[in-house]
Design brief:
By secondary structure, the chain is mainly α. The protein has helices at about 10-25, 30-40, 45, 50-55, 60-75, 85-105, 105-135, 145-235. α1 packs across α5 and α2 (about 30-40) packs across α5.
Length: about 240
């Protein structure tokens, strides 16, 4: 069966249409603006939140998230920003990483759990704040405004993502230190075994020399003893001469 050419493939047509739509929107949402946003001060921690990177709400359907990912990836692609290719590459990698996280049900759920925790903690803090405001005779708190409430959740969400990343790095550093320590211990043991084998080898190689030296020493000692004995046995004291008167 012959393969369909790109022009006859409905999926390709859909993809091509999306590309054209993205290009039309470039004048509104420029590549430069997105690169600046993704690399702004604090981006190391801000980009830990994939929803923030892709500029989508947590409840956004995955198909809509995919469209947003495609739009942003085209905007910040290094080929499209050759005058700022290095920064574009960094932005492109941030967008790809965010999409991979959200496209995976397991990692996306973890992100959702963080956001839910942020909402829960925010509600608890705001409940305490309302109590204090009531004591002061105030009926409302600033966070009763939906936008300010959303911002409060946003701030705490970022903090939780940052805390999670710090813990991950600490665990990674500990794991690296532990592996380094074990490796150093292994190297030390290997060197000790190598030294022991070398000593044993030298010991075995020199055994014959030691035996021969000992045998030679014993032979020489025996020879000297025999010669000394012969000298003692052949020794004759001088004869006494009679006195002459």
């Amino acid at each position: 069966m012959a393969e369909k050419s790109p022009k006859e493939d409905p999926k390709f047509d859909e993809f091509y249409t999306e590309v054209k739509e993205i290009e039309k929107r470039d004048s509104v949402l420029t590549s430069k603006q997105q690169i600046e946003r993704l690399l702004r001060p604090g981006s190391t921690y801000l980009n830990l939140n994939p929803f923030e990177v892709l500029q989508v709400e947590p409840e956004t359907p995955i198909e809509e998230v995919k469209k947003q990912y495609r739009k942003l990836s085209f905007l910040v692609h290094p080929d499209k920003n050759q005058d700022d290719a290095e920064r574009a590459q960094q932005s492109f990698e941030a967008v790809n990483k965010a999409w991979k996280i959200l496209n995976n049900p397991e990692t996306r759920q973890k992100c959702m759990d963080i956001i839910e925790e942020a909402k829960g903690r925010t509600d608890i803090m705001l409940a305490e704040k309302r109590k204090k405001y009531k004591k002061d005779g105030k009926d409302k708190i600033p966070e009763d405004d939906p936008d300010k409430y959303k911002h409060a959740v946003y701030v705490l969400t970022m903090k939780l993502f940052a805390d999670m990343e710090r813990k991950r790095r600490e665990l990674a550093e500990r794991d690296q230190e532990e592996r380094k320590r074990k490796r150093e211990q292994e190297i030390e043991e290997e060197e000790n075994q190598k030294a022991q084998k070398e000593w044993q080898k030298n010991f075995e190689e020199s055994r014959q020399n030691r035996v021969e030296s000992w045998q030679s020493f014993q032979a020489n000692s025996k020879s000297k003893t025999t010669k000394a004995s012969k000298k003692i046995k052949t020794f004759k004291p001088p004869k006494n001469k009679p006195e002459s008167r």
